[in-house]
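Hi there. Long-time user, first ticket. I'm pasting a complex I've been working with (about 641 residues overall). I'd like to know whether the download I got is complete or cut off, because the file seemed smaller than I expected. Thanks.
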Amino acid sequence: MKRLLLPVLLLAGCGGGAQQDLPSIGEARSLAAEWAMINDLAARGRINATYAHAMRAQLREQLKSAAATLSQPDSRYGEEIQTLLTEPDEAPPEELRTHSEKLKQIEDSLESA
Amino acid sequence: MNPLELTLGIMTSVGGFVDISELVFAARAGSTFAFALIWVFVLGTIGIIVFGEMSGRVAATAKQPVFNLMRHRLGLKLGLVTLAASLISNLITCAAEIGGVSLVLNYLVGWPYMLNAVLMVIAMIATIWVLPFKWIERIYGLLGLFMIVFAAALVAMHPPWGKIAGGLVPQIPPGLSTKELLTFAYFAVAILSAVLFPYEVYFYSSGGIEEEWGRKDLLTNRLTCIVGFGLGSLLAISILANSAIQFGPANVDPAIPGTAALQAAIPFGKWGLILALLGMFFAVAGAAVETCLSNAYCVSQFFGWAWGRHKKPWEAPRFTIAWITMFVLALAIILTGVDPMQLVEFAVLFSILVLPLTYLPLLLLAGDKSYMREQVNGPIAKSLGWLFFAIITVAAVAALPLFFLTSGGQA
Amino acid sequence: MKPEGRIKLVSQLLDLPLLDSEGRFCGVVDDLEFTGAAGKPLLLKALLVGPGAYKGRMPAWAMWLVRVLAGDRITRVPLARITSIGSVVHLDCPARELGLDKSERAAERIIPHGGAL
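Hi, the file is complete. Here it is re-exported in full:
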């Protein structure tokens, strides 16, 4: 029983940490989706370059802030956000949506936990 | 009643209805809860119509703006508490609006955010200095009508009108978890706060004195409030509905104000985007001007200084120093680097806490025969006034716990 | 109402704005001055205007803050200078004759004159 206690406590700590990070995960998920939307519209000529540039810069700043507030930066979602940050400004929308969907899955599983 | 003046007054109210807080919360409410919070916008709009009409009626009948009479009604100590609370609330709101308009200018022309904040404050000080009151109000209000592009975008998206109409019915969506329920409640409180911001009635009643309203303007006052605020709220509801259709299914919870402009870009392309950004620019800049002037009105009226932009700036020097100081203080808040979206949250939170202090004196004044004579609150105004006072008091009590429990609506 | 009539001091006079003969706001009725003594009629003598007049109406710590921010000046407005009392107190002379415009004049010196439509 005692052998189980430490992993259980660690998991409980992890669960607590992950729960604490839920708002940041949700924020990163949304930012990735917004980024995808902007790149999609830019590729189709529906928005101008000035707006797209300003929005990408702001989205990236917000993502960095979200990543900085994580209590578990080495977790699966932490790594996903770091990978997202390495994407170029004009990354393909599908790539960005994939990141968003992965973060959504993590978000949903944590919420149902 | 001059039809042209009335039309311009209504259009000014429409264009000036949406500010940065309504923009942000309408977009987030739509993406998170689809159409389920439309009824809260309607509820808040009815509230601001009731209190706006009362404040205009007080100005036209007693020939005094609300804050002038408020100190007399509440006395010095409670009056000072109300003044302090209003000043802080309006200052935070002004800073949030300046932050918002600086962001929009960044989206429009690409200039840096902090530089935009300084430039916008200089531009707004120049506007208020040079222009008489009516032109200040009209320019920002009428140019804010670019926001109509959001309503046009909604129509172009061929929305589910039945579901939108369904959102008018007071409801709590079924099947929400406890966290989601709390977040829903937080959004409801935030929307009420954003629609019923204190600065609106102080600015509106002082504006009535600036424009020398009398008994002949009572109908203008009523129509401006009902039609102007009513139509204005449709713009906010359009943003919510667009967000429900375009952002919700794409997993977007708009974190930055610029995302809202995509609502017009999706159906209309670049021109839609530009019109949306221009609408946001003038609407939010107008709100910054109103919050700043509102604070100057409050201070000047409380201490009995000469006030008003119907006078030249040097004819009401302490009032002039007051509004310039407000802009400088709001700019100083922005230059600390605080996130403008955090300022929006604080503005909404602080405002809901002071709303009961704002509207109770107004209710008492408008119901006092010694000031209002035959224009005293009738049974409908009295009932609605006290009903909304009860609603905002409940919202004020619930605001802080909901903010912390939901991490500011992020839960 | 005329100042000779009956008046409720708190609900009808205290904290009312003052309007001079030129239609300019020039302060608020911050306190009241009486004459009289024990066993004799208490008569309203003057209105007191200025931050110093808050003294009897605020706690000591708040009065300290008022003094730091705004000073403790008091200006007396004799009852004889009041023409009527309604939602404002109307005076029969310009504010400068009673010294009610000192702060406004001081502020005016630092405001540029010009550029306004």
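A couple of notes from our side: Chain B has 18 helices and no strands. The domain at 11-405 of chain B is CATH 1.20.1740.10 (Amino acid/polyamine transporter I).
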